[in-house]
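User: Hi! Is it possible to get a structure for several chains at once, not just one? Here's what I have:
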Amino acid sequence: QLQLQESGPGLVKPSETLSLTCTVSGGSISSSSYYWDWIRQPPGKGLEWIGSVYYDGSTYYNPSLNSRVTISVDTSKNQFSLRLSSVTAADTAVYYCARQPNYYDSGTYYYYYMDVWGKGTTVTVSS
Amino acid sequence: QTVVTQEPSFSVSPGGTVTLTCGLSSGSVSTSYYPSWYQQTPGQAPRTLIYSTNTRSSGVPDRFSGSILGNKAALTITGAQADDDSDYYCVLYMGSGILVFGGGTKVTVL
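Assistant: Yes, the chains can be modeled jointly so their relative placement is included. Here is the combined structure:
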């Protein structure tokens, strides 16, 4: 069964870069049938899609974060990563990684949703 | 920028039916937006309920159903149970690989 696990520093200073990694187990990140996503949730607020990466390194980003976000994939380690630069207190959130299906099978489109989620990791931006 | 809209809150009695909606600040939602729905309880990761408008994810009870109602996507809970007391989020596909979450609806079962 596929599992996702986020890891990274729980505390980041303002103006620095937030870096998180999602490790995929029980399946291959190199599958052509999936994108790999990052989503975040500030305390007491709703969910926000950050962006996604394909096994070949192609990416899509939330336009509101586009200038600060980089998502990359390391197929040799079965991991994908998030970097968010110039962070402020507004970037304090629980960060989730997730799998996004991207295939067609037997008359059904499996597109544009998240089907497997990590448990999330809390990142606080504070000096 | 287009905003995805959801009702802030709903209350439903045990055994009752509630319909949550997911709309756009400008325009109508259709199946081309591939609406999906997620349930989240406090301190937990979201759980996928519905994708591609009306397809239930594996293991999701059939009391959850998705549809297009008028110009919005909808999630209906029929025969609400106590453990349906949660936050519910919709996601719409906006094109060019971009997904957008709605603001979420808090459903209280009492």
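Residues 68 and 85 of chain A are 5 Å apart (CA to CA). The mean pLDDT of chain A is 96.

User: Great, thank you!
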